[in-house]
Amino acid sequence: MFTRRQFGFTGVGAAFAGLLTGSARAAKFEIEKTDAEWRSQLSPEQFNVLRKHATERPRSSPLDKTYDPGTYQCAGCDLQLFASETKFDSGTGWPSFYQPVDDAVATTTDYHLVLPRTEVHCRRCGGHLGHVFEDGPKPTGLRYCINGVSLKFVPKAH
Predict the structure, then answer these.
(1) Which of 57, 61, 74, 107 is the most exposed place for a label (fewest CB within 10 A)?
(2) Cβ of 52: how many Cβ atoms within 10 Å?
């Protein structure tokens, strides 16, 4: 039997759970696959981050300290997301960029930590990439804090 207080908290929890589904998960994308298809293509960690909105451990990705010329593509669909020229060392333990490639990413509001954050996902496959914050360097003042496991680095051809 629920008390009124427990019932109220349950209702609030259910409301937040509804928000967690977010428009990124409900939207239609150019590339859509079943979970089984994604699992066959991605590593378990990539699947958890890109498809289940998990976050990799900070400082676990070698791409955090990669600064070679090249591009960063979506590990799910190979869409070019970020140019190496926009990458910077944020000190957070995740690859950080101040600007994505034009028409590469989309954003939604994420309530996973109760307070709203801006989630970044691939606009073509909907894969969860990370979050964007307003504490980055010039010229944009933005910090796209991206899970390295959601990216593929493609070195610039010589």
Answers:
(1) 57
(2) 10
User: Is 4-155 a CATH 2.170.150.20 domain?
Assistant: yes
Specify whether the CB–CB gap between 98 and 83 falls below 8 A.
Answer: no
Q: How far apart are the first and last CA of the chain?
A: 69
pLDDT tens across 132-148, in order? 999 999 999 999 999 99
- Encode pLDDT of 15-53 as tens digits: 433 444 344 455 789 999 999 999 999 999 999 999 999
Tell me if residue 145 is catalytic.
yes
Per annotation, catalytic residue among 77, 122, 125, 145: 145
Amino acid identity of residue 115, one-letter, is: L
Quick one: which of 72, 81, 76, 89 has its CA closest to 33? 76
Q: How far apart are CA 85 and CA 135, in angstroms?
A: 18
